[in-house]
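Input sequence (462 aa), recorded before submission:
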Amino acid sequence: MKKLSLSLFASAFTLALSACGGGSNGKIVLKIGFWPEPSDTADVAMYETWAKRFMEDYPQYQIKGMPYTYSTETVGQKFATGALPDVWQTWFTEPGKLKDKNIIRPITTQIADLGWDEAMDEAMKEELTFGGELYGVPRDGYGLGLLLNKRILGDNDLLPEIDGEYSIFNEDGSPAYPTTFEKIMEISETLVDQDNVRGFMMYSANKNGGWVFSNMAWNYGAVLEKQEGGRWLANLNDPASVQALEWIKEMRSNGLLQEAVSCVYNDWYSNIGERVAFAVVGSDVLQNAKLLGGVDMNDLAFVPMPSGDGTHHYSLYGGTPFVFTKGVSDAKVEGILKFFSYIGRSPEISEKNLLAKKEGYEVAKRKNQPILPTIMPWKDGEFLEKAKELENQYVNINLPDYAPFFDAIEDNKHSEEPQMAQEMYAALDTAIQSVFTAPETANCQALLTTANTTLQKKLDNK
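Predicted structure, token format:
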């Protein structure tokens, strides 16, 4: 019994030390979940340099890299077993659910003490605020847009040639790229005669189809969720949503989409080079065309999402926030936020913050990575001016081919649906798969009504 009591005492002491933010040699250990994977040696070396600088200035802290990739399936178990790092990345759809499950903690006071709450992009801050409390720090934003292969289109006389280059603009400066889904279908009908080339890539699995379809439906004028009398109502079978699914059905029936029935988001970069002319992609992953697909970035262009009805022009807008595990002490939160300034992730106009940004660009440049404009999470004018000035020094793609999207994103932003967005995407995936499998007999109205019923049950249970 004495041995057992002693063991229990030791365990209790260890837990108490951890809860107080204690660590080895009396230092406060900060477990960083967004640390690069060991295989990415250049990025690991960069982070180690940043950590060394930070610990020299704040010797009370010790940085510990704990690479973690967020998963809805495993996050609960990892939290229950104490396997989550102190800070990690997720998606903007997740913090509300993670808060409800008591997996993450608020950081309102710590952010306000730094004055970062006033510098934060309002749309991103709203996505991270629940019950007046802030539950994360935005890393960056993304918007969905239309990625197109200029070479495929130009070789088929579907883009003008100006000064020896295919252009996404006409001589008079008007868009030569499609601004409506109707135009995409028209172009796709021209391309279908080409060997192994299709017009448009539509996703259908892993919630990716529903994710993109929601943006398409908005651009036909759909409202997918609404609130009446305090109750949230699914509205997936909105007539405008039916029109969007009918477009997919017609494209599938006429062989204008990729052949695969099960198609996920990560399939775009292996198809956009030779197999499809158009794909809907987030602005934050465009570099993967070259890095993972081997596509010349000069063959591509990135433009705003097309409209379904000629009136609505929305881009689904989201991003990546840093969140903090429930139970992490205030001292740890304060230390991690200080560390953000050493990795270029704070809104501070300081030498160390801007130096880290510059070093990040330099590493990307040495790795021969495409460097594109970003959607920054801060709104402070002076900071944005400095950050954009630095970014522009390193952007290495043909900016006019990507400018249509980045010039329009502020006006086109549309947040993800407020309730159970991931569950909505899953329900919509099922409808899209049915259209892919049997387009001749698919009843779009009925399929979306079934998806609507599925989502409504989940909303009511919540």
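Checked by second reader. The longest strand covers residues 137-149.
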